[in-house]
Amino acid sequence: MLQNILVGYDGSAQSRRAYDFAIAAAAACGGRVHVVMALVLPSVDPGTAILDDRQRDEAARALAALSATHDPRVTVTTAVIHGNPGDVLLAEALRQASDHIVLGHTPRGALLTWLLGSVTSDVMGAAPVPVTVLR
User: Fold this and answer.
1) Which residues of 57-105 form beta strands (DSSP E)?
2) Residue 20 half-sphere exposure, CB side, CA atoms within 13 Å?
3) What pLDDT is attached to residue 34?
4) Listing from the earlier edge strand, what are the strands of the sheet with 75-82?
5) Are 88 and 95 in contact (CB under 8 A)?
6) Residue 131: CB partners within 8 Å, gap ≥ 6?
7) Fold classification of 4-134 (topology level)
8) Among residues 79, 83, 84, which one has the least CA distance to residue 37?
9) Where are the beta strands (DSSP E) in the chain?
10) What is the reported pLDDT for 45?
11) CA 118 to CA 114: how far, in whole Å?
């Protein structure tokens, strides 16, 4: 049974589909949804602190707008966390005692995936719980 569902959200249409799927599953099972947006720091330069604050504020606003649209039977929590998205999602799944992870997959092509890696692949390969990927 799906009681604690973690959703990785990046603002894409695919991540919105993942969110909608998780909300429907949680509503059907009486579960809750925790939505996480990972922000990758551009550098360790102290001058980027303003950018980091701006990114965090924009991400928090996006998550607040997203979670305002959910089924009222579902408890939704959100978090904006700095770090590698795959690592952030895996750590948050453990911290939240998630029993399922839902992700949207944005195809980037073989070359970009090879060069940059894939959050979906990283999470699927190391997740301690089942992962649902929506295209």
Assistant:
1) 75-82, 100-104
2) 10
3) 97
4) 75-82, 32-39, 4-8, 100-104, 131-134
5) no
6) 100, 101, 102, 103, 123, 124
7) Rossmann fold (3.40.50)
8) 79
9) 4-8, 32-39, 75-82, 100-104, 131-134
10) 58
11) 8
Count of CB atoms within 10 A of residue 111's CB?
Answer: 8
- Alpha carbon distance 84, 108 (integer Å): 18
d(CA 2, CA 28): 9
Each residue's pLDDT expressed in tens, for the chain with a length of 135 residues:
689 999 999 998 999 999 999 999 999 999 999 999 998 766 555 555 555 778 888 999 999 998 887 788 899 999 999 888 999 999 999 999 999 999 987 765 554 444 444 788 889 888 999 999 988
Q: Which residues contact 110 (CB under 8 A, 6 or more apart)?
A: none
Give the start-to-end residue ranges of the domains of the chain: 4-134
Tokens of 11: 């603002």
Q: Reduced to 3 DSSP states, what percent helix, strand and coil does the chain have, rounded to the nearest 5?
A: 50, 20, 30
